[in-house]
């Protein structure tokens, strides 16, 4: 028998949910949602499970990830229960449930703790610069290695175990027995959704928003490759240098548009930003912009007089790699792609 968690509603509010208790179960939200189908019906079902405190049913469900947050259901809800916001909140809550370290939940629930972590990392980068006596070459050399080790470390210690936990909750615990060759056959779903997020095209409002996200994902992955593998800050190759400029400019221009739109609060989905939403877009913007200026200082021979710019970039990078990627909103991109993959696996049954 399903267990009821009487504290679940209060718990969800800490992750950003509004008054979903106001829901009177009319089903209007599900009717207007262009992504909801008879087999995968939401968001009403998720609202009901949340109101009833059936958190285990939500933990084993992929439905919160099937929503692409267009906000249409919240706009049309006659009770202002904000079902679209609840779906976003459930994604944050699930992220915390998948995270074996428990840090994700703590950071989502406490802004002051998040700020403390950010400040500690600023102090860490400053201490590192002092210990290297502000030697530009050494600091940039170690900074480059940090990128590589951060990617390998964060992926293998945090992200991979968390994806395995997600798989356990949503496939194994849900009672699905999937054959090994089905995992192989359906693997293409994961790759396609990861790089295109094509399901978002199903949202009525979404063609431009989807395109902006696509540019951002491609720009971000390409810049990661250019800085880490092609050593953008260390290379003399003109093609790689120009490539890095284009990629970093793409990132800070697109994220600037996101920040601008979010701050105007003209649409439903920009009206209720959680601190983690802001951290994600602002840090991505700062990363693209600071990388762009670091390379300009290198190309103009002014980097020795402007080490502060590289230290600023490194600080943003360290905070991004150690807070936002493993424990913040960045993981949504990954979990959503895996949710599409797991959903395709479930549908083979
Ligand atoms: S969330 Fe709003 S639209 Fe959806 S079932 Fe409840 S009251 Fe109706
Ligand atoms: S936010 Fe959009 S995609 Fe998500 S449940 Fe509401 S209508 Fe559907």
What is the element layout, followed by pairings?
Blueprint: H1 8-14, H2 28-32, H3 44-52, H4 55-59, H5 63-66, H6 72-76, H7 83-98, H8 103-109, H9 111-131, H10 136-172, H11 180-185, H12 187-196, H13 207-228, H14 238-264, H15 275-299, H16 307-327, H17 330-346
The structure holds iron/sulfur cluster (SF4) (2 copies).
Please provide a written account of the structure.
- By secondary structure, the protein is mainly α.
- The protein folds into two domains: 8-90, no CATH class; 103-346, no CATH class.
- It is built from 17 helices and no strands.
- It has helices spanning 8-14, 28-32, 44-52, 55-59, 63-66, 72-76, 83-98, 103-109, 111-131, 136-172, 180-185, 187-196, 207-228, 238-264, 275-299, 307-327, 330-346.
- The model has no long low-confidence stretch (mean pLDDT 93).
- Residues 23-29, 44, 47, 77-79, 81, 83 line the site of one iron/sulfur cluster.
Provide a concise account of the structure shown.
Helix content is 70%, strand content 0%.
Keywords:
349 residues; 0% strand; globular; binds iron/sulfur cluster
Low-pLDDT segments: none
Q: Which word captures the global form? A: globular
Task: Give the amount of beta strand, in percent.
Answer: under 5%
Order of helices and strands: HHHHHHHHHHHHHHHHH
